[in-house]
Amino acid sequence: MLPQGLIDALIDRLGADRVLTDRDALIPYARDWRGQFHSTPAAVLRPRSTEQVAGAVSLCAQAGVAVIPQAGNTGLVGGSVARSGQVIVSLDRLTAVRSLDIDNDTITVEAGCILADVQRTAAAEGRLFPLSLAAEGSCRIGGNLATNAGGVNVLRYGNVRDLTLGLEVVLADGRIWDGLSGLRKDNSGYDLKHWFIGSEGTLGIITAATLRLFPALAQRETAFIAVPDPAAAVRLLGEFRRASGDNCIACELLPRLALQLVCRHIPGCRDPLDEPAPWYLLVELASPAAGEWLADALQMVLASGLEDGDVSDAVMAGSLDQAAALWRLRESIPEAQTREGASLKHDVSVPVSRLPAFVSEAGAAVTRAMPGVRVCAFGHVGDGNLHFNLSQPPGDDGDAFLARADEAGRIIHDLVATMGGSVAAEHGIGRLKPAALRRYRSPVAVELMRTIKRALDPDNRLNPGAVLDREP
């Protein structure tokens, strides 16, 4: 399926062990994490350096072959799958930590570094790299950057875009842009790195990044709180931020259904509270300053919430192990939903102030359209990002339920749009949502994206079909 001689040229450039064409060898790279998208790549390339990535991209460009970048392959929107005749460039061998500048509080790493390894490297030097995801043990920095990953600490530290000072990128023609700056102030023209962060490999292949570090945390207080509704959760969020001096680093909302599913399907998980509640809040306060004042702030807000009716019960973690057990309840929700049966997933965001109304109105709308559906809306109340997931009614046919994905998505996304939100909060567009991008972003915004794509990849050879699926 590839032009004659291309495989030989790639082997000459990369080495035989870095050019995979055997069907069995391609399997680990040939499907997405959810199993919704299946690749049929003609080859998988595993370069060991930026120069080898550039060489491979150059050869493919000359041969007119599309290139699909792939990092940890943990994405949720099919953004790193290939079609027949396309080549996957895996970054899983670019794993070097190139430099660690403690005085500048930066670390420069290659795109194949696993997120948890970057966290550990920073921690060994008394620093914090705050990006934290459920998939941090397998996702890689290149994919985090390509999707502008968020996670649980966005409330305090921002998305990965906010944690990035510089990039190294291989362009569509094989040239290398070295933008690995460690500067926090640089107004010398356009800030080019932001074109590539969140572009899902459609404008260039990120091969390395210089990332911001922060002082290691000396205090960390975690609580699991029963609340009556999302409105109470939003009010408590404001109180926690004020009482802690804006040291609330995570604030996660869970419905009763999510906790039930986790306790039912995930071994070792249990309800940490004695009585059931309709909603729960998982809150973490943390600071690099020594002391115990965050525990006092947490207790003060909880006491006030009990008096006001915003809190009905709560448990504070007394150790790191107890905190980890509470976080496991939150992080196990997707797996528990999968074990329960078919589910429809929606990664959306609205302004925090509109979140309670959105949960109420969206829940009512999907229930009217799909009687018996179970709404499992959970996520990052601190930044307005909810995973508004739907579980099939008990006993229903799973395939029939999944066949209504477009109907459910339209109901939810239309409401998101009316509230000034986004239909792709942190997972990206990939191959799952290009139609939604066209529907819900303005024509001017979409045309600007197409203009940038045409400028940087005029032949549409970098991850074609992702984000922008076709010309108008």
TrEMBL record:
<protein>
    <submittedName>
        <fullName>FAD-binding oxidoreductase</fullName>
    </submittedName>
</protein>
<dbReference type="InterPro" id="IPR016167">
    <property type="entry name" value="FAD-bd_PCMH_sub1"/>
</dbReference>
<dbReference type="InterPro" id="IPR016171">
    <property type="entry name" value="Vanillyl_alc_oxidase_C-sub2"/>
</dbReference>
<dbReference type="InterPro" id="IPR016164">
    <property type="entry name" value="FAD-linked_Oxase-like_C"/>
</dbReference>
<keyword id="KW-0285">Flavoprotein</keyword>
<keyword id="KW-0274">FAD</keyword>
<feature type="domain" description="FAD-binding PCMH-type">
    <location>
        <begin position="37"/>
        <end position="216"/>
    </location>
</feature>
<dbReference type="Pfam" id="PF02913">
    <property type="entry name" value="FAD-oxidase_C"/>
</dbReference>
<dbReference type="InterPro" id="IPR051264">
    <property type="entry name" value="FAD-oxidored/transferase_4"/>
</dbReference>
<dbReference type="InterPro" id="IPR016166">
    <property type="entry name" value="FAD-bd_PCMH"/>
</dbReference>
<dbReference type="InterPro" id="IPR006094">
    <property type="entry name" value="Oxid_FAD_bind_N"/>
</dbReference>
<dbReference type="Pfam" id="PF01565">
    <property type="entry name" value="FAD_binding_4"/>
</dbReference>
<dbReference type="InterPro" id="IPR016169">
    <property type="entry name" value="FAD-bd_PCMH_sub2"/>
</dbReference>
<dbReference type="InterPro" id="IPR004113">
    <property type="entry name" value="FAD-bd_oxidored_4_C"/>
</dbReference>
<comment type="similarity">
    <text>Belongs to the FAD-binding oxidoreductase/transferase type 4 family.</text>
</comment>
<dbReference type="InterPro" id="IPR036318">
    <property type="entry name" value="FAD-bd_PCMH-like_sf"/>
</dbReference>
